[in-house]
Specification:
The chain has about 180 residues and is mainly α. Helix content is about 75%, strand content about 0%. One of its GO terms (molecular function) is DNA binding.
Length: about 180
Amino acid sequence: MESQQDNQPVYRKELFIFKEFLDGMKDLCEKYQSILPSVKSIRKRPKKYKKRPKDPYAPKMPQSPFIFYFKKMKQKFQNEHKEKKFSQITSLIAKKWKELSIEEQKPYVKLSEEDRKRYNEEQKQYSVITQKQISKYLQKKFKVNQIESDSEINDPIQPKQEEEEEEEEDSFGGNIIQNQF
């Protein structure tokens, strides 16, 4: 019992210190909340990444069967529903597409497959062309680097006098040790 009574003053002292700490934190939070509106206005927005420029010579992506269906039916739906917005007409066409059976979708799937073949052929040609352009670019760059390196080889190499002076003024006494040997 005596040990519990001895620990009570220490416990109360620690509790008092902890309460003071919490009060200090509360004051700090209140100060931060009052400053917060001005801090938010100072913060900068994160930088947006720049999009890579699209190559105008790159082949166009193949279209899905739905896109072929959409192109065919768009004018018909616009004539029927003149009062509706384009987004509403698009949703109507999408519902009709979902209602179509597999047999009714087959012609559009065939068109999509043909378009996929077209894209693959154009992509092969495009990749060959771009590889040739890259290799030409690298060859030019290599020639420029080779010319620069050749000019460096022909230049006589002269020792730098500044480095030798720095060695003589070595503050750690390294030059004294080297001179002794």
